[in-house]
Amino acid sequence: MKITGKTALVTGGTDGIGLEIARQLMAKGASVIVCGRREDTLASARSEGFEAIQADLSNAVGCVTLATALADRSIDMLINNAGMSGNFGPGEPLDLALTDQAIFLNLNAPLHLIGHFLPGLMQRPEAVIVNVTSGLAIAPRAGGPVYCATKAGLRSFTQSLRHNLRDTNVHVIEALPPVVDTAMTRGRINGNKMSAKQCAAEIVDAIATNAPEANVGMVKILRMIYSISPALVRRIMIKF
Question: Sorting pLDDT into bands at 50, 70 and 90, what band is 181?
């Protein structure tokens, strides 16, 4: 896709991977709209020149709020990046309210937004939908069962959506990041983490080159090992 002159909507675009994607798309000549929940991060995004919309995508009302705010706009890129962990550790009770919130934000919200924006995307000369899943969509870890389940569900949906839209002007990309240094992983996952800037660069490159997937960073190695022995990858990742 030629990024210059396009309009992109990046959910969860006020911090982390989403903000870096927004910055890099803008640097390549795109007009970028971001959405988020917190007014302080929205204000910061506006100070960088982004159009920023407040919307809580952990429920259907928030998805409608965002779609309504952009009802008269032409969107070329829909980047479903917003997400949350929803984790619970060994021996901890499952917080059902938090679980429902995570399932909606990570899985239902991308589906709702695709439903709202797909008719408009179909009218553009070229358009792209990017669903940000995770390397954990390939094989789960014990410490994040809710997160892994939602990302695996979004991965499956994305693969089917890509097939269904194969003869249209809408290109569908799945982005699978590794562990990235963001607010969501700080204090939860230790060890080496990819920078959000580097992760975003690989996702933006996938958009520019019309790749079907962006296997980011160490996920490339994960995919290679999985192609040889899925059972080995599952044994390794469940303890990660």
Answer: confident
CATH number at 7-237: 3.40.50.720
**Domain residue extents for the chain:** 7-237
- Give 180's contacts (C-beta < 8 A, 6+ positions apart): 16, 17, 193, 194, 195, 196, 199
Amino acid in position 50: F
φ, ψ dihedrals at 83, nearest 5°? -165, 170
pLDDT band, residue 226 (cuts 50/70/90): very high
> Considering 147, 154, 172, 202, which one is annotated as catalytic?
147
Active site residue 226: no
String of DSSP letters for 119-168: HHHHTSSSEEEEEE--GGGTS--TT-HHHHHHHHHHHHHHHHHHHHTTTS
Sequence length of the chain is 240
User: Which residues in 69-92 are b (16+ Cβ under 10 Å) and which e?
Assistant: ebeeeebbbbbbbbbbbbbbeeee
